[in-house]
TrEMBL record:
The UniProt record lists the keyword Transferase: yes
Record EC number: 2.7.3.9
NCBIfam families: PTS_I_fam
Primary location recorded for the protein, binned into one broad class: cytoplasm
Annotated Pfam families: PEP-utilisers_N (PF05524), PEP-utilizers (PF00391), PEP-utilizers_C (PF02896)
Protein name per the record: Phosphoenolpyruvate-protein phosphotransferase
Family statement: Belongs to the PEP-utilizing enzyme family.
Length: 584
């Protein structure tokens, strides 16, 4: 019987295959209490399982090749670090030795304790890191229960299979993708998880939050993932299969058409040049940015370097990471944003303040960096050194007033002097830009422009501050709406001011990669868009269909609208008129 389950698309597309249930090994728990004589051997069994998990991770690390190796390697390293965590290991030993729990029960108890800590976090990204704990403990758990022969332990081929699980570890995702897995249905998980990022990189359709998947789907059931609609169809009908074949034909044709755009210039229908930059956090984003013909990196979120590891990355570590991005972009400009920790992004080194009553309005971004000038200077020196390998610009997050830019310029000057004293090579020029995401900076943008060489509008934050609506609170969907006229007028003011001052201005919030906003942003005079590289071709394609001059002429009428619906109606009217008289 045909069954439809709902899930959240984490990586788009459709795929058809046989279900393979990867049962959460975390559930196989033996809750009996141990006799005294059993404690020693049980601790030995636990240690052996941890060693096996370590070896597996090491072997996986060794097998990685190619563009994704670095990125997947980072996840594996993070998991290996967890397996060496003294607190975790001592806690496990104590539960067995003192509490007389079995190894599996001890693992489950430690997992539940840590999961509660991650669950209490507000930041959806950090919350999703709780999955790492599940995945590491799940790996040890399966080592506890697995047959001892290495041959038997090898992962079976996944050709034709769709994996159904609670979550999938990033390392397993990489392994299974290489073995022919077609897609993933996860009953839990979030679209911010590393597995979801990898599924997008591997082009594997993935649904998360498919609540009843493990209870409803059986091994070898035929399943169709529709990650466009957010559905899994178990036992699809002939009609479903026909719809899938039609999607395949369309996707193939669309892929061929878009692929041709990877090397095409970015031009509107009336021939206006637009520059498309990529937002990047991971090595894979750089690869994709190159493959899709990005004009450079418009936003490198450097805080991810700090979020992914324990402790602060040293100057050399940061330098190596930034230099690799610069080299990877092969002479195209790279915009490195300095640390934007704080608010919902807390690092493991404890730099971001904790317990602030209102963290989104607290010590975040440049406010935090200026509070820890020594640590900030380490980052500035690393960026300066990397800038000797190609064109680099520095971008400052959460700028509120001019004084902050003056302070940054002074610190950069000092960093240059320190490096010169050490005999280090220095770049001749390094442009310093301000993110415009605080309303005060947007309103007084002409003052900011006095000290900024360029601007990048961060609409994700600017919208939350202008509209007083938390960007992570989905109950505010109707208010956190980038079509609100007040918000649009402010963006238009920033773009117009930068253009008057003849300084580059880009927009790097999520709307830059959303084709529903392309016409609107063009109407505002935007010429530089920065987005996830996966969205580049769609935006380039959309631009070819739009008449830039006509949109600019229509702009005053758009921004005089009183409601978001009026904006939408007027915009649709203008675009429909263009489509009516266009060749496309
Ligand atoms: C923004 O605020 O729009 C932005 C690009 O920065 P982030 O999403 O990293 O806060
Ligand atoms: Mg921001």
């Amino acid at each position: 019987m045909r069954i439809v389950l709902k899930g959240t698309p984490a990586a788009r597309g459709m795929t058809l295959g046989r279900a393979r249930l990867v049962q959460p090994s975390i559930l196989a728990v033996d809750m009996r209490m141990l006799e005294d004589a059993e404690v020693g051997p049980e601790i030995e069994r636990l240690h052996k399982a941890i060693d096996t998990a370590r070896t597996e991770l090491r072997e996986l690390r060794g097998k990685l090749h190619g563009a994704l190796a670095r990125e997947v390697g980072d996840f594996i390293d993070a998991h290996s670090l967890l397996l060496d965590d003294e607190e975790l290991l001592r806690g496990l030993d104590d539960l067995v030795a003192v509490g007389h729990y079995t190894a599996s029960a001890a693992l489950k108890m430690q997992r539940d304790r840590l999961a509660a800590v991650f669950d209490a976090m507000n930041d959806p990204y950090l919350k999703s890191r709780g999955e790492d704990i599940d995945q590491v403990i799940g790996r040890v758990m399966s080592a506890l229960n697995q047959p001892s022969s290495r041959e038997e332990r090898k992962l079976a081929s996944r050709v034709g299979e769709i994996v159904v699980s609670d979550t999938v570890a990033p390392a397993d995702m990489a392994g299974m993708a290489g073995q022919g897995m077609l897609g993933v249905i996860a009953s839990a998980g979030s679209i911010y998880s590393h597995s979801a990022i990898l599924a997008r990189s591997f082009n594997l359709p993935m649904l998360v939050g498919t609540r009843d998947a493990l209870a409803t789907i059986n091994d070898d059931d035929l399943v169709l993932i529709d990650a466009e609609l957010g559905e899994v169809i178990v036992h699809p009908t002939a009609q479903d299969l026909a719809r899938y074949r039609q999607w395949q034909r369309q996707a193939a044709a669309e892929g061929r058409r878009l692929a041709a755009l990877a090397t095409a210039p970015t031009l509107t229908r009336d021939g206006a040049h637009v520059r498309l930059y990529a937002n990047a956090e991971l090595a894979g984003d750089i690869t994709l940015a190159r493959a899709r013909g990005a004009d450079g990196i418009g936003l490198y979120r450097s805080e991810f370097l700090f979020l992914r590891q324990r402790g602060l990355p040293s100057e050399d570590e940061q330098f190596a990471a930034y230099r690799d991005v610069v080299l990877g972009m092969g002479g195209l400009p790279v915009t490195i944003r300095t640390l934007d920790l704080g608010a919902d992004k807390a690092d493991s080194a404890g730099l971001a303040l904790r317990g602030e009553e209102n963290p989104a309005l607290g010590v975040r971004g440049i406010r935090l960096s200026l509070r820890y000038a020594d640590i900030f200077s380490v980052q500035l020196r690393a960026i300066l050194r990397a800038a000797c390998y190609g064109p680099v610009r520095i971008l400052i997050p959460m700028v509120t007033h001019l004084g902050e830019l003056t302070a940054v310029r002074n610190l950069i000057k000092k960093a240059r002097e320190d490096l010169a004293r050490q005999g280090q090579e220095l770049p001749e020029r390094l442009d310093i830009g301000a993110m415009i995401e605080v309303p005060a900076a947007a309103i007084s943008v002409t003052s900011i422009l006095a000290k900024a060489d360029f601007l990048a509008i961060g609409t994700n934050d600017l919208a939350q501050y202008v509209l007083a609506a938390d960007r992570n609170n989905d109950a505010l969907d109707g208010i956190y709406d980038p079509l609100q006229p007040a918000f649009l007028r402010l963006i238009a003011h920033v773009i117009a001011s930068a253009r008057r001052a003849k300084k580059p201005v880009s927009l790097c919030g999520e709307i830059a990669g959303d084709t529903q906003f392309t016409a609107l942003l063009l109407a505002m005079g935007l010429e530089e868009f920065s987005m996830h590289p996966g969205q580049l071709l769609q935006v380039r394609d959309r631009l070819t269909k739009l008449d830039c001059a006509a949109l600019r002429r229509a702009a005053p009428r758009l921004f005089r609208a009183h409601t978001r619906d009026e904006v939408e109606e007027r915009l649709l009217e203008v675009v429909a008129k263009q489509e009516g008289c266009g060749e496309t």
